[in-house]
Specification:
Length: 191
């Protein structure tokens, strides 16, 4: 796997994307949910151009979300390959529980941050929130310290398993990730 792809994957795997590892196959499924179809198709195009999934767009389905909101859902299936086994062994404690891998320092960069926040970030009251419920407390504390140090961010708060980035951090993050932010996602960083 090339480095650009790994950078993107490390951002996506911090979210709801996951690796299937069973007797028949081992592949990555990139899960993107939201209202912005253009973002979904842009991610698919990027992964396809890198050669890791079919060029044909997967179907986009509608899903009823919280409070009756209608969301779109796209599942991008990558090609079945043993190359994902190494990633699986780094990211998973067992078939269902993820952990943050020790080599995050090697592969999580500005582009990873952009893809993670474009996919998982939610803006509310001039703050950016990212759900971390799928990780344990130790991993979350590690991630906070990692983000604060690597990207020189102000204190990141943890509220009910959500990382909370204040408006100063949002401006810093946007400056760092601007080259990778897709047009349909700029609203998440401009408060």
């Amino acid at each position: 796997m090339n480095k650009i792809y790994l950078n993107i994957l490390y951002g996506l795997l911090l979210g709801e994307s996951f690796i299937i590892n069973n007797k028949k196959e081992i592949k990555l499924i990139i899960k993107i949910e939201g209202k912005h179809i253009s973002y979904m198709t842009d991610i698919h195009k990027k992964i396809s151009e890198l050669g890791y999934c079919e060029a044909k767009y997967p179907g986009i389905i509608s899903k009823l979300g919280k409070k009756g909101k209608l969301n779109k859902l796209m599942l991008i299936h990558t090609y079945n390959t043993n190359n994902y086994l190494e990633l699986y062994n780094k990211w998973y404690v067992d078939k269902f529980c993820k952990n943050i891998p020790n080599d995050l320092f090697c592969y999580f960069n500005d582009e990873s941050l952009a893809y993670w926040l474009m996919t998982e970030g939610k803006i509310s009251n001039s703050k950016l929130y990212v759900n971390m419920k799928q990780f344990n407390e130790k991993d979350i504390k590690f991630m906070i310290q990692f983000l604060e140090n690597k990207f020189r961010l102000d204190k990141i708060n943890l509220i009910n398993y959500y990382l909370e980035f204040n408006c100063n951090n949002i401006k810093k993050i946007y400056d760092i990730t601007k080259p990778y932010i897709l047009p349909s996602m700029k609203f998440k960083f401009i408060t």
